[in-house]
Amino acid sequence: MNRFVTANPSKCIGCRTCEVACALAHSDGAGVEGLAPDTFKPRIRMVRTADVSTAVMCHHCEDAPCVNACPNNAIVYRQNSVQVEQERCLGCKNCVLACPFGVMDVVTVPAVRSFAGMTLSLGVKAQAHKCDLCVGRDAGPACVSVCPTSALTLMDREAMDETLRRRRERAAQEAAEVAA
Amino acid sequence: MEKHMAVCPYCGTGCKLNLLVEGGKVVGAEPLNGVTNEGELCLKGYFGYDFINDTKILTPRLRNPMLRRSRDAAFEAVSWEEAIQYAATKLSAIKAKYGPDSIMTTGSSRGTGNETNYVMQKFTRAVLGTNNVDNCARVCHGPSVAGLQVTLGNGAMSNSIPEIEHTKCVLVFGYNVADSHPVIAKRIIKAKERGAKIIVCDPRKIETARLADLWLPLNNGSNMALVNAFANVLINEGLYNKEYVANHTEGFDEYKAIVDKYTPEYAEAITGLPAEDIREAMRIYAAAPSATILWGMGVTQWGQGVDVVKGLSGLALLTGNLGRPNVGVGPVRGQNNVQGSCDMGVLPTEFPGYQKVTDPEVRAKFAKAWGVESLPDQIGCRLTDVPHLAETGKLKAMYVMGEDPAQTEPDLALVRKGFEAMEFVIVQDIFMTKTAMFADLILPATSWGEHEGVFSAADRSFQRFTKAVDAKGDVKHDWEIISLLATAMGYPMHYNNTKEIWDELRELCPIFYGVTYEKMEGLGAVPWPCRDLDSAGSKYLYEGNVFQRPGGKGLLFATEWRPPRDQLTEEFPLILCTVREVGHYSCRSMTGNCAALQTLADEPGYVTMNPKDAKALGIRDQELVWVSSRRGKVISRASVTDRTNKGAVYMTYQWWIGACNELTIHAVDPIAKTPEYKYAAVRVEAIADQVWAENHVQQEYAKLKGGLSNAVSRAVKKAPAYA
After folding, report:
1. Inter-CA distances, B480 with B270, B398, B485, B489, Å
2. For residue range B123-142, what is the model confidence (pLDDT) as tens digits?
3. In the CATH scheme, what is the code of domain B66-136+336-524?
4. How many helices (H) and strands (E) does chain B have?
5. Does the B574-687 domain belong in CATH 2.130.10.10?
6. Residue in B with minimal Cα distance to A149
């Protein structure tokens, strides 16, 4: 099963700590000084409507529409998750339109290449931009570790089984109550 | 990487954290398992540290003492010797000419710590000879202190922060916990998971309202009517604890006589709430085996704040929800050390440890300890009295430490006139602020992260914080600066460290005596009262239901509801209520200089409004708009949302361009002198030319920022010897 981060709207207080942690986890170590409004592009977004506050992010679908929609095989299943091979991304935005959760975006970053000790500018490079579960970060997804109300959890097979077990127990309990 | 233990400098939750330091620079913050935060931090706790590093995003750190010899001159950097001598000469001359009560000082409820506040009030009382010392509790929980001291005998939270998650009912009244204290919000969520009922009284659909079992969206300005109606239901439905009331309270008959009129049906007309919801709230509250009331600025920032605080404490008394674990009354303090500045007696009425200036024995004790013949016996003036007293010539000098009244007080035009009327203004701060622009002398202090000390969390817990990095520039600790000034004015004062100050004040304050530095080592937290060296302090107050009043009983108090002061008219038809947002703090000198927080929210800030109001005015979400009151006019950005009630608009108070305090009214509670920030009549207007408006915001913002940073950079250029 692909792992994914899930948000509990009954715990979210809309504080956006997750967004900052996400941006920092993908800043190549630049730290908070590197943050600025123009370049702030977290892969997790807090959404606030009249009735709900919660974070939304990639579900790492098992049969992912973004994977299916990509004409260049840039989106792949790897490490029990959906990952983007950025060098293959064309920036065509098919994946953006395919994603039913609105959590895929295409962003552009300055493209550079080193050649003979010189840095050459190659214009811009497109990137399909979404939650990568902070693969490579020892402590796991940054958003999960900072959420002050523990509204975010990393759902893997084990956590999913535990959730399902609890739900089935509750269903059994409720069934018993109805029978009584 | 070094790690240095600190207590978060933002809200009053008192979260323990480590500052991560590399090469003399703070590069991160990580949570510690403190008593109140248990390994959590919020947005500001995690990402609100880089202001220490002088990012200059909003305004520069102060590096040198700066003086201007006349108000039309520019600041020049001067030596500490010259700065202190200048201040001492000026203050001495003003004291000799106009008397000690012509000078006012402030403590700071922010990063400086308890020891500095103790030293500031000592300087004010023993050296200047006046009780004119106050702090920004005046504009926040002043009414909670004043109200609870009368009804229960102690102005602080009765129970501790960790207990909140074990209560069976939380009554949240005028308190946006998600934005004000995110880590306490987690306690409420956990309480709910453990089966507690949550009742929220707030006109807006705040985050906690979303999670509540019952949300009462009362009309803005109807608090007293609702609290009286709550009491009416408890009494008339026989829900109150008769035995508790008989044994532990007084004043029941007068109380009942007043609230009798406030039937839920009567209150319905004032509060706009269905009578049945008012009844239901009290049925839930009274049925809970343990219940906690938490409140914030939605209760206190009114012309009738003290009365409502007294009324809320009455609900706890009626139901016996005091004097044991997991119950109580909780005025949750907003600033990290506003509890501490009150504890330390930076109040015009009290010495440290809540000992009254009007008590001759107390005065004699402090006079003896401080080596002066006598101490002033008249109650001093309040922070909110300052503009009026300055304009009428009664106040001639002000020494502002770690506060920015030119941003945070109501009716800023009035505040500016007050500062202009003063003969001499000293501002002691870590940043160049809007208030510092009115100063004659600016004294640069070390920041949180650059010094150590003790903070008081909202639940009375004393906790130590340590230094992480060396300060840069020619700056000193706040308490050192005050000591130098005292000495230059003929009162030798010298401390080697904060522990010396702490031990001096412990000896003078019986309720703090047992709180030693050793007990607060590491993650240690000691809630006062703590009278003995072998005591761990008091997690909750009023043990055995003994209240700290003559006779030991709690007082039931009610009074008639009074409508707010400002008048809605055709010209100003909307209510403006000033509020907080999670990412910025106080005047924003700290959070505005943090890259992450500034990235999330910047000028001109938002005016949130209901879609129906917006539509009637032809305003679309995210457009710039004018907001004006009888006192001023500012530009802000509309945020149109169903979470905001119709007829009211909300602005956060830290913006320079969208400065809502240009609009607020200087109408104060008669007892606490706390301003009615929550109710000003305003008009909101659409702006046709949005391109012009966007440019206007950017230009004005650049001008303000440039003015402040140039004042500092030019001063340093003028006197390179000290730069």
Report:
1. 53, 19, 9, 14
2. 999 999 999 999 999 999 99
3. 3.40.50.740
4. 24, 28
5. no
6. B186
Whether B28 sits inside 8 A of A31 (CB atoms) is yes
A33 to B643: CB separation less than 8 angstroms, yes or no: no
B435: exposed, middle or buried (Cβ count in 10 Å: 0-12, 13-18, 19+): buried
The CATH fold of domain B2-53: N-terminal domain of TfIIb (2.20.25)
> Distance, in angstroms, between B210 CA and closest chain A CA?
7
Of all residues in chain B, the one with the smallest CA distance to A18 is B43
Parse chain B into domains and list their residue ranges: 2-53, 66-136+336-524, 142-332+550-555, 574-687
Q: How close does chain B come to A169, measured CA to CA in Å? A: 18
The pLDDT tens digits for B625-663 are 999 999 999 999 999 999 999 999 999 999 999 999 999
Tell if the CB–CB gap between B189 and A10 is shorter than 8 Å. Answer: yes
Residue B145, token pair as written in the block: 């202190």
Q: Are strands B574-579 and B648-652 parallel, antiparallel or unpaired?
A: parallel
Name chain A contacts of B185, Cβ cutoff 8 Å. 13, 148-149
Does the structure show a pLDDT above 70 at B224? yes
pLDDT, tens digit, 9 for 90 and up, residues B269-288: 999 999 999 999 999 999 99
Angle between helices B478-488 and B114-122 (to 10 degrees): 20
Taking the CA of residue B10 and the nearest CA in chain A, the distance in Å comes to 15
Contacts of A52 in chain B (CB under 8 A): 210
Out of A32, A36, A149, whose CB is closest to B185? A149
